Amino acid sequence: MGRPPLDIGTYGKIRTYELGPKRWEASTRFRDPDGVTRPVRRVDESENKATRKLKRALTERAHTVGDDITAESTFADVGERWLADVQRSRPGSTYDRYRGRLRNKINPAFGSLRLRECKTSRCDAFLRELEKRLAPNTVRTYRTVLSDVFAFAIRFDALTVNPVDGAGRIEGGNTRATKRALTPAERVDLLSRIDADERARERDLPDVMRYMMGTGVRIGEVLGLRWFRVDLDEGVVVHGDNLSRVTGQGLILKEPKTLAGFRVLPLPDFVLMMLRLRYPGQRYDTGPVFSVETGNWRCPNNYVHYIQQARDKAGYPWFTSHVCRHTAATILDEQHLTAREISGYIGHANPSFTQNRYMDQRPQSRAAGDALDRAMRPAR
Questions:
Q1: Hey, what CATH class is 75-155 in?
Q2: Which fold has domain 184-357?
Q3: pTM of full prediction above 0.70
């Protein structure tokens, strides 16, 4: 009868060998999640150092197994495991944002607790404290991260109930109620003020804002646009890539989250004319359309600050780059395009999301008032 195999995620006896002067090897066998037992070796200048290095490697290797998450695991350990999973599935700005939320405020409050000690009352008290200092929508992102870490633990049967589910609602700041688009008068006034701002012109803000209002694309999409995606003869552009800054990697182009993000957009004449005037020639086709003077990418994070500076100077403190996206959707709605047509143009997979979240429903004309007047006007 053969020797029974190691349990998954465990290792056998550690052996050490002297390879030469100040060169030691520590080795053992580790059973991986696929059930295969493999040799693991580490080398260092002394026997103790080689052994310690090997044990650190074995600990990291064991963390990939998954069944070591239990109710006795600390929140900080599970949070880091969850964060690694986020980095694999949603790299880029989402990962950076979640990592900041987890490490800045959530870990100091929950990191040393065992999972079994994380009760609903503690989660609710944490969120209520955040409400005193942060905007409601920001608190909601903290709630999302906290809930996702516990949901990750539930995947490994370390918990049966997510303690955040029973915490109270975050009131106020509902993005469904705060959507806003520029009115026709505001569009004319804001763009004229941006045109007159010398610093804004140096930063390409007049052209970028007109492009966003004419296409409804996001700030990362417009700054990630390259000339070979633009067909000036046919008057169309292919959008899909999104430019963003990722910690440790710099500026990268990412694919959209859904297939709806890949789309061919017919350009309005005022945008097409602007692009024809900007076109530098065929040898620049792989370069960005809206580049810095050296021809390199513009950083979306910096560009958001440029927009804020220009909008404050123009007297529109509520304006953001996303308002251009709302404005484009609202204009298309006013021109009687269907929600499906509009969602396809601006890159949403769900038409109802476009209708509920992106179309400014404030009345822009007297059509509704005139209709009611015709129905209710007393007969003469």
A1: mainly alpha
A2: hpI Integrase; Chain A (1.10.443)
A3: no
